[in-house]
Structure formats: C-alpha cells, structure tokens
Amino acid sequence: MQARTAVVVAGGRGTRLQPLTHDLPKPLVPFCGEPFLAGVVRRLAAAGVQRVLLVVGRDTAPFAVLGPLGDELGIRVEAVPEPEPLDTAGGVRAALDRLDGPTLVCNGDILTDVPFVEVVDAHVAAGADATLVLTRVDDTSSFGVCVRDGERIVDFVEKPAPGTLPGQDTVNAGTYVLDPAVLAAWPEGRLSFERDVFPGVLADGGHLHSHVWEGAWADLGTPERYLGGHRLALSGELRWPALDAVPADADGVRVAPDADVDGAVLRGPVLVLPGAHVAVGARVGPHVVVGQGCSVAEGVDLRDAVLGAGTVVGAGATASGLVTGAGAVLGAQVEAQGDVVLGAGEVVADGTVLPTGTRRPEPRG
Questions:
Q1: Which residues contact 242 (CB under 8 A, 6 or more apart)?
Q2: Closest by Cα among 119, 96, 100 to 44
Q3: I want to staple 91 with a disulfide (CB 3.0 to 4.6 A). Which of 55, 122, 215, 244 is the partner?
Q4: CA distance 84 to 27
Q5: Is the pLDDT of residue 13 over 80?
Q6: How far apart are CA 109 and CA 174, in angstroms?
Q7: Is 245 helix (H, G, I), strand (E, B) or coil?
Q8: How far is 176 from 103, CA to CA, in rounded Å?
Q9: Using an 8 Å Cβ cutoff, are 270 and 284 in contact?
Q10: Using CA of residue 124, residue 128, residue 130, residue 132, what is the dihedral sign?
C-alpha cells in the first residue's frame, strides 16, 4: 500500500546555518546543487506519493520554486503557511483535512535515504496507529530513547545514562507514518510529536510501531553537519537524487557534461555541476561540490568544500571546510583556514586570510 500524501515539516529558521539562511529558508539551502527539499520531493515521488504538503513559516513564496518540480514529477506540491510556530506536530495537525489514509511525515532538514515504501508497508502490516523510523546511537545520554518490546514501542525515556537501559539504543529519526486519527484527537494549536502525540498514543493503549533504519541519517543544521552530509552523499554512503543525474567515474569524480575541467586535478569524491569552469592546474577534492556556473582559477586548492552557484575563486586561493552562498567571490591568494561560511554575494579581497570559524556577513542573531 502506498502513502498518497506526505507532510514535510519545513519551517525551521536555520539560525545556526547563517549566513546561508539570510536570504533562503533552511530547507531550500542547496544540497548537491539543488534545494535540499527538491531531493526530498523526488524521493517521495519515487515512493508513490501523489501530494506533498510543505509546512513552512509565515512566507510561502520562496517555496514556489518547487512547484515546477512537482509538475515534472507528476505530483502536487503545496506550501502550507504556519503564521506562528506550532512545534513539530501543530502544523501537521492544522492540515488534517488534507490527509487521507496512511500519511508520511518527514523533517525538512534531516538527510536520510530511508526507504519510504518499506516503512509504509511495515506500518500497514502491523496495523499500527503510528510508525516511527528509529536510528541507533552509541551514547543515549544526549537523546530521548524509544524503549521497544520487539518492534513495538512501549515507552520513552529522556537522555538515559549509558548502561541504564540495556539493549535499548534506538532514537527517533524524524520520519513517521501516521493514521490521521492520531492527530484528530488533539485540538489545533501548538503540538509536539515527541512530547504530546506519541506519548498520548501509548497512554491511550494505542500501537506505536518501530522501523529501525541502519543506513545514513544526518542533521544538516550546522555548517559542520552540512559539510558532513555532503561527504556522506559524495562518498556513496547515502544515495541522493541530485547525484543520480551525474554519473561517477571509478574514482568518484562526477562532472556534468557541459562543465569545463580540462587540465584540472579532480580528487574524488567530487561533483562539478553544469556550466562550471575549473582551470588548468587547479586541485579540487576530495569532498567538494563545485556549483552550477562556478569559476575556479588556476592554482586553487579546494578540499571539503561546497561552492554555491556562480561562486568565483581567484588564482592561488586555498580552502578547506568552506561553504559559500550563490555568487560569492574569493579573490586571488585568499586562504580559508576551516569552518568558513560566506553568504550570497559576499566578496573577499585578494590575499585575505579567513580564520577558522569566519562568518561573513555576521549572523543576525
């Protein structure tokens, strides 16, 4: 059985990803060259979902960019405004009249390739009220643990000390399948899946099923995690739709057909997107995304970096741990020493040394 509708909770402000999120909602920050949510929508469409509801903040306009993608995939993508924060479940509850049958719920900043069809099938077979995708952790003291009896969730324990719950190491991975009746039991307004809905199902004697996913799972909420997510995808530890369009060679090097890299040294895994130019003698990789229309000059050395579309990197610049927004410019001989984030259109003068942890422009608080 397929889930015809999916809801993506995508209203996060992205404070920790500034300045990338100064002009973009966090779920639209590019991942492997296209808005992160575009990859989520592609995966949902491949799982048979026919309508995707994006629960966003007050302003739905930026999410209109996903409409044409929905048309291309033959599904409907709608942005549902959340004028004020309603916590993790309140926005989904507000869309209750649009839900039909088993409904997938995903977080708009969690990177995973969990197989949606498999999760829905498990939910239906179990006859559950809700199914939670879980992931295993080594140290439970930083998480809320889902206590399981077989595949059934029977309790939640917040941040237990290591060793105090033998055999219980699974935590909520932020993907669910719900019977809409689970939400209908709650009034509209602020509502949390973790604190209200799921404990409420247990209190009422309902059935919470678990689906443990042993694959990749990552929160993209900080620049370090954003780069880490790209490493997962580029190295093949996680399959992501944007990469399927650019085949890799034996060394993990992916170059779009109309990118110009003749004479450059590409150290895989690396992704060079359409219209990019990497000059003779430049050294790029490993774990680098060169965005659409970027220009990387001779003598550049880039490692562990994501360049937003149209970024220009001047001759002799060196960078590791660099993330740029669209249209950023690094002058000649710039040195980015690590954990550097440049916002869209930011210009760095020739010869500048960007110390570890640089954010330009400064976060807005």
A1: 31, 32, 33, 34, 38, 39
A2: 119
A3: 55
A4: 18
A5: no
A6: 10
A7: coil
A8: 8
A9: yes
A10: negative
DSSP H/E element including 354: strand 353-354
Q: Among all chains, which residue has been given the structure tokens 């809700």?
A: 130
pLDDT recorded at residue 167: 87
Query: 317 CB contacts (<8 Å, ≥6 apart)?
Result: 297, 299, 300, 301, 330, 331, 332, 333, 334, 335, 336
Number of residues in the chain: 365
CB 308 within 8 Å of CB 23:
no
pTM for this model (two decimals): 0.94
What are the tokens at 31? Answer: 């991942």
Residue found under tokens 């969690």: 110
Q: What is the DSSP secondary structure assignment for residue 164, as one 8-state letter? A: S
User: Taking Cα atoms as reference points, which of 86, 195, 198, 196 lies closest to residue 133?
Assistant: 198
- Amino acid occupying residue 48: G
Supply the pLDDT for residue 248: 96
What residues are paired with 152 via a beta bridge? 149, 209
Q: Which domains does the chain have, with CATH numbers?
A: 5-214 (3.90.550.10), 249-360 (2.160.10.10)
Q: Pick from 337, 331, 344, 334: which is nearest to 358 by CA?
A: 337
> H or E element: which one contains 208?
strand 208-212
Is the Cβ–Cβ distance between 284 and 264 less than 8 Å? yes
d(CA 247, CA 126): 38
Alpha helices in 127-240 (DSSP H): 181-184, 198-203, 223-234
